Amino acid sequence: MENIQLKKGVLELCVLMLVRKKDHYGYELVMSISKYFEISEGSIYPLLHRMTKETLFTTYLLESKAGPPRKYYKITEKGVQKLEKLVDEWKLFVSSVQDILDDWGDENSSEK
Description:
Protein name: PadR family transcriptional regulator
Strand content: 5-15%
Pfam families: PadR
Helix content: 55-70%
InterPro entries: Metal_resp_DNA-bind_regulator, Tscrpt_reg_PadR_N, WH-like_DNA-bd_sf, WH_DNA-bd_sf
Domain Transcription regulator PadR N-terminal: 15-85
Number of domains: 1
Organism: Lysinibacillus zambalensis
Distance between the termini: 31 Å
Radius of gyration: 18 Å
CATH topology: Arc Repressor Mutant, subunit A
Structural class: alpha+beta
Oligomer: single chain
């Protein structure tokens, strides 16, 4: 995915979904999301800071075998509610875009 605006729009949803499954630290989130599309560390940390400030996450430190303690993010009940709302909005959005693509495809095939 090359479109930066699309990535920014969906990043909060992805982060919430991953942290709901299990607590993560920042770099771990970057690596998990990068399996699906390219993101930079610089895009995750400001998002995590904002989401923590909005009380979507709590944080705690855990000792690391490789370096300093890591800050882990744990989803709150407010974060779960936000995730559920974003998932509903995402499904509606994807369905609407698919309808537009299907209509465009129908129009294009009738021209042949």
